[in-house]
Queue: 2 jobs
Job 1
Amino acid sequence: MVAQDELLTIMYNLILNPATRDWEREQLATAKNTIGAGASFSAALATLEGKLRPLALRNNLTPDVADFYALVVGDVAEADTFDLSRHFNPDAPYEDRAIFAGGCFWCMVEPFEQRPGIQAVFSGYTGGTIDHPTYDQVLGQYTGHVEAVEIIFDTRVVSYDDLVTLYWQITDPTDDMGQINDRGDQYRPVILFVMTNSVPLPQRPSNNWTLPACMASPL
């Protein structure tokens, strides 16, 4: 187990390292400042691990930060085990999938993950022109990808209509260049229809589903 003081020293050096990406530096600085303000070291480290995890899983962290992440995973005893096999495995007859984009994918995970009936939520990139893009390529808007979440849900508990309703609540579909402070083509709002049992909502009537207020009038 790596000592707390050693991890803090590595974090400090990574913050000063010019090779560290701005986004990585921001996450490290936030964790360091949170600890400095008296928060639990293990809790702050677990939060940092969760922030870095999507890029770590795709080998998209800068090398030194990747090495630090490996230390953190070994040191955070209660860190969640992130199993991607659920993404590739076939769905049960009562399961379906949805893919939503709208701002930073980390901000999209939690609202859906907390809903009853959600089996898994995966963050990643979709809709682009190349396979397996890096974080830097997507951030540079070179590939046409958007940051998105794939949601696997139990249709016996939650419906696709329910997920779209939540999506309208956390996304502005009229902003085609990002969401709030997340600006750029990679943050544009997109709904991708991948469900096996559902059809796009705009193509079927529903007494319970309406456009959000910002979409009530023709654009």
Note: The beta strands are 95-101, 118-126, 146-154, 178-179, 182-183, 190-192.
Job 2
Amino acid sequence: MPSFETERLILRAPRTSDASAVARWLGDYEVARNMAAVTHPFTEDDAAVLIAKAAEGLAKGEAYAFAVEHKQTHELVGMVTLSLSDGLYTLSYWLGRPYWGFGYATEAARKIVAFAFNTLKVETVLASWLDGNPASEQVLEKLGFVPDRDYREEVLARGSLAWCHRMMLHRENFGRKRSGRLQHELVEA
């Protein structure tokens, strides 16, 4: 499993010792409501299962899940995952609420998308965001993702259907501003 560093973050394999922090952050309804497959409440046992599934997904070649750790404090701040399904990789991510608004999601997602394009040689990456979470849309737009399609999805924590907005990013558009100019610092793996 590769690990990466960014300016402020370490992206590494999740560990069983991360379960407490994962449970704390995903146990926050404001975080869980933005993830379709996360239940609420979310317990430490749930977190242990999530971490075990991350290792299983890697072993099967179906997913690369990264714990997002703050470089200075070494606190787990969230996770970012690339999952393979039907020949396409999908990016997903979440951060604990205290870490919202600092650009960590963009920083982590940028590094993992670069890994998808430069190492895995993926042509297209998909990602989705749920209604009520415009910050996630902004993260994806900063990386060059564009809208693909909208659909209704069951959101377990909400106990209801919500609009899900799927976006896609093609390799040649990664790191491009809306003007179409390439930002070289964005595309390095």
Note: Strands lie at 4-5, 9-12, 63-70, 76-85, 88-95, 124-130, 146-155, 160-170.
